[in-house]
Each structure stands twice: as structure tokens, then as C-alpha cells.
Amino acid sequence: MARYTGPVCRLCRREGMKLFLKGERCYTPKCPVDRRNYPPGQHGQARRRNPSEYGLQLREKQKVRRIYGVTERPFRRYYEEAARRKGVTGEILLQLLEQRLDNVIYRLGFASSRPEARQLVRHGHFSVNGHKVNIPSFQCKVGDEIAVRERSSSSEKFKALRELAAQHTSPAWLEKNAETLTAKLIAVPRREDIDDIPIAEHLIIERYSR
């Protein structure tokens, strides 16, 4: 399945909430969700029936996929990995998604959105434990040290990012130095740390457990 390359604001409107895919624009009056809070398309404003149980499960899965920018096949692999591990499957699924390198970069405030973080990682601007990593889905582990590469840190883009990172409050499972644009993953994210967007992960588990 190919990655979605269309207008991301349509995805937010389809889910009926802000998924924060456009960075700063999501916090301004220009956000389409604030101006047209109904699904896109010619039938977007039509009266809709109450969704079925299957429909609720599908929408929740699609919402989480779109938040983290993961296509269907990799997302299912995340679910299968979570199901193999001991513990609450839904919580482990979210932990795996949160520990993706592109999401960690976003959580640190080194990018204004997950799509921007994904692009920066792909362009090779970051290292993990001293080694260049350009794979957005790279799974960070406790103890990993993430840094902007030296040749990138002197660019105008990352000079501006220092100010953004300094103003951004990172979650408790990440330790950050905004001045040097370095960070360390000090713990596995807890469920209560993932609360910026409401997620009913049990619906996703029910969807895949059929």
C-alpha cells in the first residue's frame, strides 16, 4: 500500500479532530477542522447514520495510523509484535509507535509535526548512539542517545529549531538538551504519557482480534 501524499488536512477532517499533521498551522484559525468540521467530499455534510461496531473499530485504527504516518501492513506488524509480548496489548502497541525515531524527534520538539520529523530523519540529519540513522521507523530503546548530526546543526533550519526545542516541553520518558540538540530515551513511555490525542486502543485490538 502506497503512502498517502494528498492534502493531510483532509485526513483530520475525515476523523473529525485535529491530528496535528501540519505543525503550527494546526494551532491557527486557518486550520480546516475549525472552519469546516465535517468530512471532506460532496457528501461530507450529509446526515450520517450512527456507525456500527465495525465502523468504530475501523475509524480508530485509521486515526492512529494517520497520526503516526504508518501504512496498513507495517501497522499490522506492530499489532502482531504487541500481541506476542507480555502485558496489555493496546498499551504495548502505542509504546511501539511512540518509540519510532520520527515520533521521538517530534516529541522532543526537534520538528513541528510528525511528517516534518519523518522528512528530517530521511534526509539523514539525526544520529542514534553516534551512528547516522535515516529510517523513520527505527525503534529507539531505553538508553539510546539521539542527536542532530554536527554538519546539520550549523544550518539555518536547525538554528531555528533550537528556539522551538527550548520552548517545547518533552514527555517525562525523554531527556533533552535544547542547546546542543541532543536527547536520551530514559524510560519506556507509559500510557498516561500518550494523551495529546484521545485514542481508544481497545477498539483497534478488537478489530485485529476478529
Description:
It is built from ten helices and five strands. The chain folds into two domains: 8-42 and 49-97 and 195-208, Ribosomal protein S4/S9, N-terminal domain (Ribosomal Protein S4 Delta 41, Chain A, domain 1, Orthogonal Bundle); 100-185, RNA-binding S4 domain (Structural Genomics Hypothetical 15.5 Kd Protein In mrcA-pckA Intergenic Region, Chain A). Strand 4 and strand 5 form a beta hairpin. Helix 6 packs across helix 7 (114-122). It has helices spanning 8-15, 32-35, 53-68, 72-84, 89-98, 101-108, 114-122, 150-153, 156-167, 201-208; strands at 126-128, 131-132, 145-148, 174-177, 182-185. The chain is globular and about 55 Å long. A five-stranded antiparallel sheet has the order 2-1-3-5-4. By secondary structure, the chain is of the alpha+beta class. The longest helix is centred in the first third of the chain and has 16 residues, at 53-68.
